[in-house]
Fold:
Amino acid sequence: MQFRPYGSTGRMVSILGISTTAFHDEKEMGKYSSSIFHAFDKGVNYFDSSPFAFGGIGERALAHALSEMKTTGHPFNLASRTMAVNGDELLRDLEGSLRRLDVETIDFYQIWRICSEEQLTAGGDSSLLAGVRKAVDQGLIRHAVISTNMGKQDIAGLADNHPFDGITLGHSGIRLLFNKDVVQSFTGYNMGLAVLNPFGTDFFESRQELFDFIRTSENQTFLEASIHFFMSNDYISTIVTKLSTPYQIDQAISAVDHFENYSQEEINANWTRMRKELLTFREQGKSLSPTNIRESSILTDAVDFLLGPKRSES
Structure:
């Protein structure tokens, strides 16, 4: 496993992270917990959960795994989130996650779906920002993180004026391709960057046909190409994947272990090729199997969001 600094926090996080937000079957709780511990045993130390996804099944599975992880004495990093609209809601969400995970502190607490600075400051002493400061002062969270679609200038304002140590980006493959300058700007503020849900729900067969263009050679597997694409950018702290079985986790760790640094020329060529392919997808469509119809809709929506709606023929 490889480790990278999370911004200026002093914490080292595994380049491969595990998100439990895709865990959805209550009957599989034991398997989910075992998979989490398997990842931890293989060197993964960044674990992301949510109290909202599928009724919090992933959070409860992580709690079960934590009981065993704590006995090892090895360090780990916990990330959770809130979609609160004010400070009181944030503190209630946080206290619930702390109780269910049976921990005193969450390392990276993510304020989800922030679209403007006003969302953080509205309400004065009852604002989200006031709740964040209170949680940090009380030692309930170590580092405040935002998940946002804001642009470079607005993010700069957040970094300069508020106590955020990192950013989490969802649907990251799309966002990295089309907002590269925004993403790279995070490094200028010594903020950590977690990329979540790269290229869709996971790295495996369900997205392979759709994103096959990310492979840089015929010998490279789709999984290797996915992970290496992100690893080639050193401003990314951790790649947070929705892997749920030991087999998937082992394959991803193998891809990490076999990564060789791309040259700057290779990185630039990859960006150019991938951006062109996605633009072509939107303009002309791609030949997709019936199982990928939903994925094509996800991709079209994401590209439309970043580039604006496709212009109609006149």
